[in-house]
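# nightly structure sweep
# worker-07 picked up a monomer target from the shared queue
# config: single-sequence mode, recycle default, output format = structure tokens
# input follows
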Amino acid sequence: MSPSDLNALAIAQFLSTHPDFFLQHRDLFSELRVPHPHETRAISLGERQILGLRAKNKELERKLHTLIENASANQRIAEQLRTWTCAMLAETDTAQLPLHIQESLTEVFDLDAIALHCWGDFAATEAPEALQTYAQTLTTPKCGIPPQEVLALLPDSIQSVAVVPLLHPDTQKNSGILILGATQAERFAADMGTEFLVNIGQLCSAALSRGTA
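# output follows
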């Protein structure tokens, strides 16, 4: 450690143990100059403190803005989910539920493509064997680019997909699959959270089980 380092350390320790130093030497405080954080010129300690406070305020404003945006998005999703759930509950013809689920999901959540296939404990719809085999490997929703057996069911313009396994609420057997497609690659990114999709899957399964009661 160099003498200058020792001197700097001693000065720092002295100032930390004598907080009234600059009160007793007001002229020195106003005369001291420190490097500007973004420019080559020197500024006073007071200016430097003000710049630091402004930077902190901007960061706090950015975080607050993000929180508000997230809260608004969550509220919007909750309202969409409620609207869709009410539409499913209002459907009295259980035979129409698969079609109604697809149409209402597409409308409420502004989807570019959707596919719903059921088998096993749900009233069966047309479901390729390869799709059923793939679905059996899923325990939770999966987003991103799916395998070919899923892509084959969607238009070529689809860039991202959410695949939701449907478990029968009584038997907990994988008895269906819900496929949501979007033309935007970021809509169903591979690293996105899936809690909302889990809720969609549970609600779908509960509605479809009405047709097998």
